[in-house]
Amino acid sequence: MPATLESPLDILQRVFGYESFRGDQQAIIEHVVEGGDALVLMPTGGGKSLCYQIPALARPGTGVVVSPLIALMQDQVDALTELGVRAAFLNSTQDWRTAREVEQAFLDGELDLLYVAPERLVTERCMELLARGHIALFAIDEAHCVSQWGHDFRPEYLELSILSERWPEVPRIALTATATTATRQEIAQRLNLVSARHFVASFDRPNIRYRIVEKADVKRQLLDFIQGEHAGDCGIVYALSRARVEDTAEFLSQHGIPALPYHAGLIAATRAANQSRFLREDGLVIVATIAFGMGIDKPDVRFVAHIDLPKSVEGYYQETGRAGRDGLPATAWLAYGLQDVVQQRRMIDESPGEDMFRRRLGAQLDAMLGLCETVSCRRQRLLAYFDQAIQPCGNCDTCLEPPQAWDGTVAAQKILSAVYRLWRERGQRFGAGHLIDILRGKPTERVKQYAHDELTVYGVGADLSEQAWRGVLRQLLAQSLLAVDHEGYGTLALTEGSREVLKGERTLMFRREPEKRSRSRSSGTR
Ligand code: ADP
Ligand code: ZN
């Protein structure tokens, strides 16, 4: 590049007003400024935008940014304009006159950055437009959208490899916060970024303390957690359904914690108002479905709580990653129980589409369950999912209060043989609650109605509490040693793995939660 051009550091300071680069930013920027291709994996909030914005300013021509987040384009362009950067976008929300103006500005060389929606970019009209202008680089944001297995898949992303054919001399930089090796390889291959240099940032968020607790009375547990550890703090509570969001927000408010709901079923004005209050005010808790959070950049979120099990480790990582952006201590708290496993397995079984798709969902859930049930360091397990190896962290629940492992083989055999007998001898299948009643020898109406007190397994599990049995069932389900019946209804059935346990070919070590440090008050009442 000509020596007269400003250095990346100068641009960082003059245009963006920041003192110094973070992490790999400088190396990435220099590589792209010099014309190299790059694949950048960096967690959300890591500072990916500057990695293409600065090269776009440093190189002659316009930086063309492909982004699926149409809703955020206006904000991004406004923010850049405020800094004196000449930026514009092309997407379906604009009228044709505005689009024409943007196109003309591009052709006249008056744009530093041009954001384009992928479905727009791949049109012949847009290709011709680009061919007539001068391009500094292509940035492909949210590059994991090219992965057919991810939940953000965009078919148009598959067509983006055309950029390398048409503009082989223009550097391309693909960016994502999705970090598994498999996704990375898929991106490199599908976007034809084979010779790109990979920049993989650490995904560790050392200031976040990870905690996963056994679910009992979850609203009460949540309240205890907030009052006991985060009174007056700002936080996000994630729930799976709208009804639970509403219900939980109201419960917290009734107990003196200012909380607002956020989900797709609220009218747009309420949603926007709740979001902006959350961003502005201190000490507010937002209870939300996962619809909340894309593009939220509030530095002082002190906790993220999940009252339902996230569907994947990646989702969990993204959501918990919204805590502690300012680097100060923050907590990621998750409550999960037997019902979460039953419900999610059932949802997967009932989801439409190909078997392959369901298997993929199942594998994602398994990884999430593995994180919940691990007896080793949570962070180690979490980062291992992103292929990053670390030592035990000292800042998660299992490091701070190591759980015990206990031999649950016999307990597992009891429960599996109950399932087996009910099915073989009676052709019946039941859910968790009734099975536990049989094992504990509880003469309920249902037990009597079915004469289940005559089964040989009746009462053989009286030595364990109901809570302990729920733990055993949950862990069997987590390990697929027991399955939720395909018919639905949450009834339980044996799997291939169950037989190995029944035959005594397998020893099962389960996690036993450490004794709670008092403050448990009315626990046990449900
Ligand atoms: P990502 O796209 O990776 O989620 P962003 O590019 O939006 O992250 O950056 C997150 C935040 O960090 C933004 O507010 C951004 O201005 C800020 N930031 C990025 N790089 C730096 C830096 N070198 N110094 C200070 N702040 C930075
Ligand atoms: Zn740890």
From TrEMBL:
Gene3D superfamilies: HRDC domain, P-loop containing nucleotide triphosphate hydrolases, Winged helix-like DNA-binding domain superfamily/Winged helix DNA-binding domain. InterPro entries: DEAD/DEAH_box_helicase_dom (IPR011545), DNA_helicase_ATP-dep_RecQ (IPR004589), DNA_helicase_ATP-dep_RecQ_bac (IPR006293), Helicase_ATP-bd (IPR014001), Helicase_C-like (IPR001650), HRDC-like_sf (IPR010997), HRDC_dom (IPR002121), HRDC_dom_sf (IPR044876). One of its GO terms (biological process) is SOS response. Residues 218-369 form the Helicase C-terminal domain. It catalyses: Couples ATP hydrolysis with the unwinding of duplex DNA by translocating in the 3'-5' direction. GO terms for molecular function: 3'-5' DNA helicase activity; ATP binding; DNA binding; four-way junction helicase activity; hydrolase activity; metal ion binding. GO terms for cellular component: bacterial nucleoid; cytoplasm; replisome. Keywords: ATP-binding, DNA damage, DNA recombination, DNA repair, DNA-binding, Helicase, Hydrolase, Isomerase, Metal-binding, Nucleotide-binding, Zinc. Its EC number is 5.6.2.4. Residues 29-197 form the Helicase ATP-binding domain. PROSITE patterns: HELICASE_ATP_BIND_1 (PS51192), HELICASE_CTER (PS51194), HRDC (PS50967). Its cofactor is Mg(2+); Zn(2+). Belongs to the helicase family. RecQ subfamily. This is DNA helicase RecQ.
